[in-house]
Amino acid sequence: MALIKKPVTGMKDILPSEMKLRDYCIGIIKKTYAEFGFTSIETPCVESLANLNSKQGGENEKLIFKVMKRGEKLNLAEAKEENDLTDSGLRYDLTVPLVRFYANHANELPAPFKALQMGNVWRADRPQKGRYRQFMQCDIDILGEASNLAEIELILATTTTLGRLGFKDFKIRINDRRILKAMAAYSGFTEDRYDDVFIILDKMDKIGLEGVEEELKKYLGGGEISSDAKDVEKIEKYTELFKIIEGKSGVEAIGILADKLGDFFEEDVREGLKEIINSVEGTKAAQFEMVFDPTLVRGMSYYTGTIFEVSMPQYGGSCGGGGRYDKMVGKFLGQDTPACGFSIGFERIIMIMMDEGFKIPGESSKVAFLIEKGIRGEKLQEIISKAQKDRAAGKQVLVVRMNKNKKFQKQQLTEQGYEEFEEFYSNPIG
């Protein structure tokens, strides 16, 4: 039986043209983040299931690729449930591994610690265009910094990187989980319903405010449209909050909400967001806009404060996001450590750049030496020596044997970016 040549469902092969672009982007990302003081780390792709299932990853915990126990630990005869067979899994993001890494090496790391981590993650998701079961993530995180300096540095580093990759006119949407909770509490929702309300709110950009209102009525009515006066009052108070800030600018909208919510709104939240927005807008090195968006939720349950997202409407969605997760490290260390991170949507950025035919700037000229098959010995050595000199001068030189169909060979090489060709024959004419 012939072996299977296609990748496993949800995975993909990466061709040289895309790999070249990926390497270029990784180089820009690492160089820029290094300028902001971030240092690279690496963690294993396999993590303990106890960590992956610690109720930190939201819906992603349902998408874990689990790994069976090995050797003597794997006892198929006595296994009664899945946990008897598995004890680890492929990481679904880079944050859980980072926090475990930090907890394990905290005494060896500086404070605050600014980490850069790039690597593949795996989710047993339904594959579709631009979404695979294996994909690259690119995270920067600051652990041990409680002030808004962490958010400001993360946003500036990420937006500077995007600007250097050629992106502009995008938005950084920003919100705070404490504002989401304050709005829900003010409206009369009990704390045990917050997460469900936020999941519905997160659909605002797709179904609009009226759609959110209808879904809340169904939720409170247990699947049927609720007509209970108390439920209607809660929903009206909640949706009214979004209406009163419609069309208002970031800082102004935050002030309006703060005044409306009164004691439900923590004063340091207002001042914190204002400081972040004003500091970033006043010092940014790329062309983008900071936008306060009270509908921004972010799916991960580990977020405790500020949350943000890169929005690129012209490309139909977001290209990264992050936020503050001050309680997560404490689950490993037993004491809370302030933490905040930002992740670039690496795969989506690559897809956009490829769709737009992005050309890597400043590439050295590419030359192909086509050598007739009969050339051997000293003559071959002379040609390779010439190629070595050109390489030392900064050129990219490909040395290959000449095909019978030289025209087609040149056409393929041209598609790969080769601009010059030198042909070498055993008996050159003239």
Structure explained in plain terms:
This protein is α/β, with parallel strands linked by helices. The protein is 40% helix and 19% strand. Strands 1-5-6-11-10-9-7-8 form an eight-stranded mixed sheet, sandwiched between helices. A three-stranded antiparallel sheet has the order 2-4-3. Strands 13-12-14 form a three-stranded parallel sheet, covered by helices on one side. α1 runs antiparallel to α4 and α9 runs antiparallel to α10. The longest helix has 20 residues, at 16-35. The protein starts with 15 loop residues before the first helix and ends in a 6-residue tail after the last strand. The model has no long low-confidence stretch (mean pLDDT 91).
Topology, pairings included?
Elements: H1 16-35, E1 39-40, E2 46-48, H2 49-52, E3 66-68, E4 86-90, H3 95-105, E5 113-122, E6 134-143, H4 149-164, E7 170-176, H5 177-187, H6 194-201, H7 204-220, H8 229-244, H9 250-261, H10 267-283, E8 288-292, E9 306-312, E10 317-324, H11 330-333, E11 339-344, H12 346-355, E12 366-371, H13 377-392, E13 396-401, H14 406-415, E14 420-424
Parallel strand pairs: 1-5, 7-8, 12-13, 12-14
Antiparallel strand pairs: 2-4, 3-4, 5-6, 6-11, 7-9, 9-10, 10-11
Helix pairs in contact: 1-4, 4-10, 5-8, 6-7, 7-8, 9-10
